[in-house]
Amino acid sequence: MMSMYTKNINTHLVEIKNFFKAAISVDCVIFGFNGNELKVLLIESDLKEYKGQWSLLGDIVRPDEELDEAAYRVLKARTGLDDLYMEQVQTFGAINRHPAGRVITVAYYSLVNIEHVELKKHNNELHWHSVKELQQMAFDHKQILDTCHERLKQQVMVQPIGFNLLPKKFSLRELQNLYEAILDVELDRRNFRKKFLSMDLLMDLNEEEEDVPHRPAKLYKFNFDKYDQRKKRYLGIGF
């Protein structure tokens, strides 16, 4: 005769097996900047339910794989890139978010300068899309993209992460274009320049732009060494 203890153990085993009828995936939001516009790297969905729609770069996490390892595997396999910093943002677990069944996904995001990146994989229909113009995507990827964009907006206001998207030598106009593209706002030119120059983190190179169709602007570099010395007291950027 089966004891009450054995029955409880068997019940728990069945419950545990049912709990594991789910998959975990990673989705990578690769933001790119090309001088005046924030874009995201997308691939055309190969599922019939989302035919003709664009999706983020993602895949199911293997049983023997760490989450970060899976994200970098996806990045490498889809683009050939393997030297980008990616940050984990949020988990998305709506019950019906995937037509194949219960799939919980972990979103990552990264930033690249499009002009500095050459995609090494050309057989999987990768395309850069304007973040501002995207309206509909496969799965819940528009929600994931929007969430990562909001995280990027928060990060760029408290850390100088955007400077990695600029040339080593840049003008204040290029710097303002970057912040306007990421924040999706129009900033007052005078206040923007006054704010950044007052932080004393820009190095005046005593050089000007060359071969430009407009009046050459002064060129600057971001002083990362000075920022490292001050970052504990750095209060971010307020416009």
From TrEMBL:
GO terms, molecular function: hydrolase activity
Location of the Nudix hydrolase domain: 24-146
Keyword entries, A-Z: Hydrolase
Bilayer-crossing regions: none
A Pfam family it matches: NUDIX
Record's keyword annotation contains Metal-binding: no
Residue intervals of the NrtR DNA-binding winged helix domain: 162-222
Keyword Hydrolase: yes
InterPro entries per UniProt: NUDIX_hydrolase-like_dom_sf, NUDIX_hydrolase_dom, WH-like_DNA-bd_sf, WH_DNA-bd_sf, WHD_NrtR
Protein name: NUDIX hydrolase
Record lineage: Bacteria, Pseudomonadati, Bacteroidota, Chitinophagia, Chitinophagales
